[in-house]
Structures are given as structure tokens and as C-alpha cells.
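Worked example 2:
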Amino acid sequence: MSRLRPGPGVAVVEEGDVVYAAPVPDGPIAVLDGGAAAIWVAARAGERESIAERVTELTGAPLSAVRDEVERIVEDLLRRGLLVAVEDDPSA
């Protein structure tokens, strides 16, 4: 199982329902709001495999309606280096 966290050198500001994330010092700044902000919050709150389920808890949207979009946004955040995967330590 893996978890997601901000990538090295990524600064994050969560203000209300908006998340600002950027590699510092050069950027660019990603502004995540609405569903994308909910995905960011859910991605940082537990195992990667259950992000879509946490998004449904945050938004009330049905799992079937969000699963593909959640995966697309998570993959984009990983590709941009805003999030990175870390493996859980089974001995911890």
C-alpha cells in the first residue's frame, strides 16, 4: 500500500476550499478548487487505493461518478511532481 504526500520542494497552502501547490521557487502555481481540492485533501488523508472512496465521503458524489476523474487528477498531480507516492512501512 502507498500513500501520497507533496513532492520534494513543493509548497502547499490550503485556504478554505482552495489548495495552492507549487514547486518552489520557480512554480508554476497549481490552483485546485472544487473537486480537485477535494481530491488533494483525500489523497493526503490515507492510502492511495481508497482516494476515490474518501472523495465520495467529502462530496457526497457517487463512487461510479468520480472514480475515473479522481484517478486522472491524481495521475496528473503525480506527473507534475506535486504529489509523490511513498510506500507504507509494514514493520511500523
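The chain has one domain: 2-82. The chain has a mean pLDDT of 92.
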